Amino acid sequence: MNTLLLYLGPVILLLIVLGFVTYAILAERKVIGWIQGRIGPNQVGPWGLLQTVADIVKLLIKEDTIPKNADKTLFKLSPIIAFVPAFVVLAVMPFSSQIQFTDIGVGLLYYMAISSITTIGILIGGWASNNKYALLGGMRSAAQMISYEIPLVMSVVGIVLTVGSLNLNDIVEAQQKTWFIFPQIIGFVVFIISSVSELNRTPFDLPEAESELVAGYHVEYSGFRFAFFMLAEYVYIFAMSSLTTVLFLGGWNAPFGFTFLPGIVWFIIKFSVVVFFLYWVRATMPRIRVDQLMQFAWKVLLPVALANIILTTLLKEVPFLTHYY
Amino acid sequence: MPISKSFLIIGIFFLVAVLLPIAALTLGRFLRASKPSEEKATTYESGVNPIGGSWVQFHVRYYLYALLFVIFDVEAIYLFPWAASYDVLRSEIGLGILLEMGLFLGFLILGLIYAWKKKVLEWK
Question: What Gene Ontology terms describe where this protein resides (cellular component) (chain A) (predicted)?
Answer without folding.
Answer: plasma membrane
